[in-house]
Amino acid sequence: MSSVAGSADAGRGAVYDRGYRPYEGPRGRRGAATLALYKASMRRALGLRRTWRQKVAPFVLLAVVTIPAIVNVGIGYVARDRFDGFQIITYREYVGVSSALLLFVALVAPDVMCPDRRQKVLPLMFARPLLGTDYVLAKVGSIASILFAFSYLPQVVLFLGNMLVSDAALDYFTGHLDVLWKVPLSILVLAVYYAMIGCALSSLTDRRIVAGASVIGLFLLTSIASGVIVDQTDGPGGGGGGGYGGLLNVLAMPLHLRDVIFLGHVDASSQLGGVAGGGWLALACYLLVLSAGASVLWWRYRWVER
Amino acid sequence: MSTGPLLRLTGLTKSYPGVTALDDLTLELPHGRIGLVGANGAGKSTMFRILLGLSHPTAGHVEVCGIDVARDPIGVRSRLGYMPEHDCLSLDQTAADVVSTFGELSGLPPRAARQRASDILDLVGLDEARFRPISGFSTGMRQRTKLAQALVGDPELVLLDEPTAGLDPIGREEMLQLVDRLGTFGISVLMATHLLDDVQAVCDHVVMINAGKLVVSGATNSLLERTGLVTIDVGRHTEELLAGLAGAGVSAVAVDGVVEATVGDDAQMDLVRDVVAELRLPLFRLSTRLRTLDEAFVRRSEELA
């Protein structure tokens, strides 16, 4: 439908009313809507299609987490004649550069979740072919994906760099094949965990600053509390068995699982080091925290399907 | 477009603890522009939530465009557009981004969503402003953006909740013109409002609810019944006309500078015309006064009470 609404005099401009054209192409349903929300949340988290200020945090973080890999490869290259297989940081240690990722989750999860509530966008979203579970899946998935990418990319830099500066690149590659599945699996465990906690806490408030402080607070407080318990019970005058206090450390749970993936057992120097079946306990706590996060999210968005 | 009725409500009831928001509504509404009228708290927003499948009725059955909402809420939402009353837009995004994102959420492929967002923003008069952040928009521009996001998925029915709320007279007029145009595009409209003038201006059909109960439902014209009054505007000669009508046995009064005469039949109407002619008065207007929707709403509510 179109019409000329302005003057049609020869040589003069005309204003065309393009009217309305119905859409007759393909149309997706829940899957397409979920994917669209996932992509929109990714864009938001990365600051794409937003002002430059919103792009600073994610890309500074990416730079920060990549620096150890670059330094490691650089020194390895410079000192290649003196040290074979030089390492400042191992692949295992590089999984979960915790404080940087924690900061990222505390910044991004609230930014992705809270404005939808504060600006009352949710009713518009749920007027689309989208359920509460789809919404949660898209949000957690987007943050987990970015965390995965930002943790995996430096590992790729480290691996390729080490391979290229080693005396025999092919030997290095074949000698480190296990890294090719251990690293992504460990990072996946970590990314899903942090994303779930970040989203769950952010869903409880519509204020970003409160949500961000809650994320950092939860990780720090449980970390400090578990440290105090472990020190008190395992120290002089303590009754022993303080390692179980390490199960309170929410921040460290995916790192224990990382150790299980890389070493086959919990790291002896960690808080759970002296605990029998520490790996299984860590897995149980990990799943418990994930379940708690999922329950919070289900509870917060259950009204959509009422 | 489905061929059956646009909406079919059967015994629709929604109760909350201590409150019945909708009380046994049974309705069948045709395609077109429909006004859903009621005071604040009448149950309009509850009805919208039920139509969108976001709230389950306590009792009854709802079909939208021939689809059972209880069985296939996702299917219903794929055919609906929704414009809420309250602010609901991401303020730090541009109108183009917001509308294209909602296009994708409606199931459109990304490329088609971007193209349609551009077209729809042009349609609602925001073509120049579409790359500006919404935080800098006026109330009228935000209302247009809200309408654009409701239309971007090419809905069969669009639910508009108080679309003229907060607009100045010009903005209100422009919004009503847009709503009026939707009908010509083959998009049905269900417009919730408490402003009967808005409904009278653009809607073909009116549904009035009060405290969750159906007051009346029917074609707008059928509700604008004749009142038995004619309005006669003879400029500053009101007193002469009143005297002439009294002499001819026609009951009349002066209201706001015009004369309102009670006419029972066509013969009395002719008599009014003859009186004006015999007195050689200038006749600026001679019209039958119709009952307004406000009067119809109040009268039907009183009858129900």
Query: Biggest β-sheet of chain A: count, sense, barrel?
Result: 2 strands, antiparallel
Provide the succession of SSEs of chain A. Answer: EEHHHHHHHHHHH
Helix-strand pattern of chain B: EEEHEEHEHHHEHEHEEHEHEEHEH
State the low-pLDDT regions of chain B, or none. Answer: none
Helix fraction bin of chain B: 25-40%
Question: Tags for this entry?
Answer:
heterodimer; A: 306 residues; mainly alpha; two-stranded antiparallel ribbon; 11 helices; 2 strands; 65% helix; 1% strand; disordered N terminus; B: 305 residues; alpha/beta; Rossmann fold; Alpha-Beta Plaits; 2 domains; 6-stranded mixed β-sheet; 4-stranded antiparallel β-sheet; 14 strands; 38% helix
What does this protein look like?
- The complex is a heterodimer of chains A (306) and B (305).
- Chain A is mainly alpha-helical and 306 residues long.
- Chain A has one domain (31-305).
- In chain A, 65% of the residues lie in helices and 1% in strands.
- Chain A has a two-stranded antiparallel ribbon.
- Chain A is globular and about 80 Å long.
- By secondary structure, chain B is an alpha/beta fold.
- Chain B has two domains: 7-222, Rossmann fold (3-Layer(aba) Sandwich); 226-291, YebC, transcriptional regulation domain (Alpha-Beta Plaits, 2-Layer Sandwich), CATH 3.30.70.980.
- In chain B, a hairpin with a 2-residue loop joins β4 (59-64) and β5 (67-68).
- The interface between A and B is large, with 39 and 47 residues.
Summed up:
With 306 residues, chain A is mostly helical.
SSE blueprint:
The complex is a heterodimer of chains A (306) and B (305).
Chain A: E1 3-4, E2 16-17, H1 30-46, H2 52-78, H3 91-94, H4 98-118, H5 122-125, H6 132-165, H7 169-175, H8 179-202, H9 208-234, H10 253-263, H11 278-301
Antiparallel strand pairs in A: 1-2
Helix pairs in contact in A: 1-4, 1-6, 2-4, 2-6, 4-6, 4-8, 4-9, 6-7, 6-8, 8-9, 8-10, 8-11, 10-11
Chain B: E1 7-16, E2 19-29, E3 33-37, H1 44-51, E4 59-64, E5 67-68, H2 73-79, E6 80-83, H3 95-105, H4 110-123, H5 139-151, E7 157-161, H6 169-184, E8 188-193, H7 196-202, E9 205-210, E10 213-219, H8 220-223, E11 226-233, H9 238-248, E12 252-255, E13 258-262, H10 266-278, E14 285-290, H11 293-304
Helix pairs in contact in B: 3-4, 3-5, 4-5, 9-10
